[in-house]
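Sat 14:20. Reprocessing the chain from the morning session after the first attempt stalled halfway. Input below, unchanged.
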Amino acid sequence: MNPRILALGDGAMTLEFGDRIDAEVNARVMAARNAVAGLQLDGISGVVPTYRSLTVHFDPLRLDRDNLIERLLEIARAPAQQASEVVATTRWLIPVHFGGEFGPDLAQVAQLTERGEAEIIATLCSLELRVFLIGFLPGFPYLGELPEWLRLPRLTSPRAAVPANSVAIAGAQAAIYPWQSPGGWHLLGRTPVRLFDIGDAARPALLAPGDTLRFTSVDRDEFDRLSSAVNAGKMVRKDWLDS
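Finished this time. Tokens:
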């Protein structure tokens, strides 16, 4: 679809690039986010990227609405190859202990996909997953995309409480729950990594749209060691970077 502008009251508008979850569409969203930041327009208070759109918040008393619309559409109509050149801001390596009490749905996922548990873990750890957006909960990353054979619908009966730091899949996506909350995704493991730090005012969420991450499988002893280090403040964000 052609890019279009949707009004969101008098202080925000959404620039839509498509109508589906698609890596190239999302790359165009990220390119637009970077381009809007590069404009350095006085009056823009924030930009919010999603799978297929970019919402721009602005002060209508400081920015002419029609002029801003023209600038956004000009950005959206940039040649497609520019979107493909968007470079992920940060690459992360996230340790996960799969299965057991941390991954209660792993055996069922193996049964439904007719694959072994080890193959499922190896597949997840082989993927470089893109952070499409942050939503649902503070710091909750929507990650994609999973191979076709691993795409399963959500649980018919969601759990009332999913433990914090659970790694899960549903549809074409993977995710990590940064907080305990209700949830209907298939739980495959848990990470010791803290995804949201309320004490970091500049960037409380570890992950950001456009980042990529890989999972690495760790045994329970290593999980416990890393968890203790995180709780003691001995692990910092740079320790999770994928060098």
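The chain has a mean pLDDT of 93.
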